[in-house]
Specification:
heterodimer, A: alpha/beta, Rossmann fold, 14 strands, about 20% strand, B: OB fold (Dihydrolipoamide Acetyltransferase, E2P), 8 strands, about 50% strand
């Protein structure tokens, strides 16, 4: 097992290593779990014959057949509830729902059945459902295809939420998600999957081992060590924070970068350990600002070591407005490396 | 030396592809049959294998638009 704290953001290709896009990493994890656990099956819209809108299941229906890689109609409430039933009957369904934005259609099976079932049965019956969905914006796909909705799901007890930022993390966390007896939402940032049409952040590709491995759900990763400020991000904003840290270092500000990787349960220990050292905190979150994960991270710090902070915490989040289609408007509102750098500069200026 | 060429029937239609990623660096040793490059065509992902074993050389860059019939790299025999 690789020590997660040793995994750095800079995993660009070393000579001869196999550099893998995040969507291939996901496909390899699904392939392995299908091959090695007969209770695992996939279900979703366009997942079988087409291989998934993100090509996460490309080639799997040919290998495992229509029973185990199932194309569903556009009936999210139906197939999400079917996943709950299948899990009760001992299966491990992996359900892909193309865009997290459409999760509202099937929220009742998710939060009344899937999330609560273990509690309702006094812990006697597990609910090993993995829900995969694409999320995030930045490529002009308008208000119903660009949200992250981290906080919407993190707010519901009983669900684990992961949002990997690299192909390596995606592979390790998806193995862990499928094997977890609890329901896990596996959120795939479209910009990080490696597919040109959704935008591409090259840092998301990783050198990939051939053998399977698990990464722990509920553990944040320290991507860069620093002593002056803690920058927290998740999925795309983790990369923005890392790029910001590079720029800030040139100005003499050494930022520590934490990639949450898991949104819920939140790894407060790693955050607190870092902020205890740096005394400053900025959270970059692509989700809406109001009642968001950024606010939760800040509250967790404020209610424990708030009295020892050297400056008030800061948030760089999406303003509380539907995400615009127009590219200049969306780019103006979305968190960015520049906004993280500028907010950090201001913080050091105001509270020198 | 053997060219890595996008076959004339690699995908249907006359669409251009987007070279998504080289799975191995320029100069890496690859084996015949290794998937070395991925191309996005419309919404489908296309994989191309190394035709022979040897040293991989890139001729086209990630993000380039490519067409069927294009030579996108080569493998120098060991």
């Amino acid at each position: 097992m690789v020590n997660p704290t040793d995994i750095q953001m800079d995993e660009r290709p070393k000579a001869k290593g196999r550099k893998v896009l995040m969507n291939r990493a996901i496909r390899e994890a699904l392939d392995y779990e299908l091959a090695n656990d007969p209770s695992v099956f996939l279900m979703g819209e366009d997942l079988g014959a087409f291989g998934g809108v993100y090509q996460t299941a490309a080639g799997l229906i040919e290998k495992y057949g229509e029973e185990r890689v199932r194309d569903t109609p556009i009936s999210e409430a139906g197939f999400m509830a079917a996943a709950a039933g299948a899990a009760m009957a001992g299966m491990k369904p992996v359900v892909e729902l193309m865009f997290v934005d459409f999760m509202g259609v099937c929220l009742d099976p998710i939060y009344n059945f899937i999330a609560k079932h273990a509690t309702h049965t006094g812990g006697k019956q597990a609910m090993p459902v993995t829900i995969m969905a694409g999320m995030g914006g930045g490529y002009s796909d308008a208000s119903q295809h660009s949200q992250t909705l981290f906080a919407t799901f993190a707010h519901l007890p009983g669900l684990k939420i992961v949002a990997p930022s690299t192909a390596y993390d995606a592979r390790g966390l998806l193995h862990a998600a499928i094997r977890d007896p609890n329901p896990v939402m596996f959120l795939m940032q479209k910009e990080l999957l490696g597919l040109g049409l959704w935008g591409t952040m090259p840092e998301a590709s990783s050198i990939m081992p051939d053998e399977p491995f698990e990464l722990p759900i509920g553990k944040a990763f320290v991507r860069r060590k620093g002593s002056d400020i803690t920058l927290v991000g998740m999925a795309a904003t983790a990369h923005m924070a890392a790029r910001a840290a590079d720029q800030l270092a040139e100005e003499g500000i050494e930022a520590e970068v934490i990639d949450l990787a898991t949104i819920s349960p939140l790894d407060r220990e790693t955050i607190l350990t870092s902020v205890e050292k740096t005394g400053r905190l900025l959270v970059a979150d692509e989700d809406y600002r109001n009642c968001g994960v950024a606010g939760e991270v800040i509250a967790s710090v404020a209610e424990t070591i708030g009295h020892r902070l050297k400056a008030p915490p800061r948030r760089v989040a999406f303003p509380d407005t539907p995400i615009p289609f127009a590219r200049p408007l969306e780019q103006a509102l979305r968190p960015s490396t520049d906004k993280i750098v500028e907010t950090t500069r201001q913080l050091f200026k105001e509270f020198a | 030396m053997t060219d890595i060429r996008i076959a004339d029937d690699q995908w249907d239609g006359d669409n251009e592809g987007n070279l998504l990623t080289w799975i191995y660096d320029d100069g890496a040793e690859v084996s015949a049959g290794d998937i070395v490059v991925e191309i996005m065509v419309e919404k489908l992902q296309v994989e191309i294998e190394a035709p022979v074993s040897g040293t991989l050389r890139h001729a086209r860059a990630e993000g380039d638009l490519v067409n069927r019939g294009d030579v996108i790299g080569k493998v120098d025999l060991a």
